Amino acid sequence: MAIRRVRPSKRIVEAQLSRGDFLKLGGAGLVGATLLGTTGCGVFQQGGGGEQGGGGTTFSLNLTGEIPDLDSATTSDTISFDVLTNVMEGLYRLDINNKPIPAAAEGVEISNGELTYTFTLRDGLKWSNGDPVTSHDYSYAWFRALEPETASTYAYIVYFI
Question: In a designed cystine with 62, which of 40, 56, 108, 154 is the match (CB 3.0 to 4.6 A)?
């Protein structure tokens, strides 16, 4: 089998760049890519941005769009879930190996028939305004998700509670 190289008969576009122009264009592209890559890092904020790790009280989260809904019963998009996951605490959370571990719950008692789960909340849980978090707050959220007026997309998850 012979391979024959075919050359186009006409050149559609011809552009010539000098070495200097090429370096200028490449440098400008590199600077632009660097600036775009650091927009969410806080580098251009007052006071620098070189702080890394703990010790601060600011949490930055790069979202891909506007937050459509912050109601935990009605939200159904990933952006809202990302925010709610970072500002709300469930009874349990997943550890690094995706195993459930207590979060707001101190522990759980499971009845012999495994039909009744009794959670004990950790001491000192408070809302951002200082009010204590109670078991009523959790049950209110679950039952509100089940109400037809709420029209929760994920009501089926808590339906069996």
Answer: 40
- pTM (predicted TM-score): 0.57
* Secondary structure element (H or E) that encloses residue 135, with its range: helix 135-146
**Would you write out the chain's pLDDT as a tens digit for each of its 161 residues?**
455 555 555 554 455 656 666 666 666 666 566 655 555 555 445 554 445 555 677 777 778 888 888 888 888 888 888 888 888 888 888 899 999 899 999 988 999 988 888 989 999 999 889 999 998 998 888 888 888 998 888 888 877 77
Domains of the chain in start order, with CATH, are 78-158 (3.90.76.10)
Which tokens belong to 101?
């571990």
Name residue 98's beta-bridge partners: none
Question: What are the start-end ranges of the H helices in 2-119?
Answer: 19-37, 78-87
Chain-centre distance of CA 105, in angstroms?
23
